[in-house]
Amino acid sequence: MARNIFKGLGIALVTPFSSDGSVDYVALKRLITYQIDNGADFYCILATTGETPTLTKDEKQKIKDLVVEMVGDKMPILMGCGGNNTAEVVHELQTGDFSGIDGVLSVCPYYNKPSQEGLYQHFKTIAAATQLPVVLYNVPGRTGVNMKAETTLRLARDCKNIVGVKEASGNLEQVDEIIKNKPDTFDVISGDDALTFPMIACGAAGVISVIGNALPKEFSRMIRLEMSGEIESARKIHHRFTDLFNLLFVDGNPAGVKAMLHEMGMIENVLRLPLVPTRLTTMQRISECLKFRL
């Protein structure tokens, strides 16, 4: 059976845009270099934080190629491949370019709100369509359906290449139930920066992080301290992050982290519709927080 290799600090990579709305590949290279040099353990590309629904097929290919070229064999790369049409996802897995990719992140089907049996059959079909490790993505706040612990565990036991779940349900009881009953080859990965500290305390293997785009050194230090048993030191860093966690998501993701990266001089503060930049008041508060860098 495959084992999960996506551990520690995963970066949910943003897509920088120039002022004219085109993908800013120069800024993307700058970001990746910065993150690799400051504690990133793996990458998660072409997913929610990357504004993937607004990217063209050609842009997605160029971003994927750039990340693979820069990251190489330094760390694993997880790439988004999901949707609410099972057959279409299977077709993409069977015909798409996954060279240099170490696993796929597949989100729960959204909008059509399948039953738990529908979720099971969807992911079982996807897992059978690829030799790559699959990480499930449960984010009911975006999809409208929560994948229950028993469904996640059933998939973990029945599908040899389903190696983990990015859990963003916000339900620590559900997270704990999965961790308590999961196979050894399967891991829970936090999908919520603010809950990473308690989730790792429960036994999660790491996080796919938004704030890691901007502050990888500080956030990876918290994770490493906690995993090595230095709980009090890790808790202090977690508490210093609290205000930023709230600011990053108050106007939606990735508006907050793009505002932060803009304040740091890393990217332009540009998003593609239907997303818009964070409000000026939020921007000012982010700027104030950054004056007191962790």
Question: Notable features of this structure?
Answer:
8-stranded parallel β-barrel; single chain; 12 helices; globular; 294 residues; alpha/beta
Q: Quick summary of this structure?
A:
This protein has twelve helices and eight strands. The chain is 46% helix and 13% strand.
Describe this structure as you would to a colleague.
This protein is α/β, with parallel strands linked by helices and 294 residues long. It contains 12 helices and 8 strands. Strands 1-2-3-4-5-6-7-8 form an 8-stranded parallel β-barrel, surrounded by 5 helices. Helix 4 links the parallel strand 4 and strand 5 (134-138). Helix 11 (255-263) packs across helix 12. It starts with 7 loop residues before the first strand and ends with a helix. The model has no long low-confidence stretch (mean pLDDT 96).
H/E topology pattern: EHEHEHEHEHHEHEHEHHHH
- Counting helices, strands and paired strands, the structural category is alpha/beta
Main β-sheet: number of strands, strand sense, barrel status? 8 strands, parallel, barrel
Radius of gyration: 18 Å
Helical content (DSSP H or I, runs of 4+): 40-55%
Rounded to the nearest angstrom, the distance between the terminal CA atoms is 40 Å
Inertia-based shape: globular
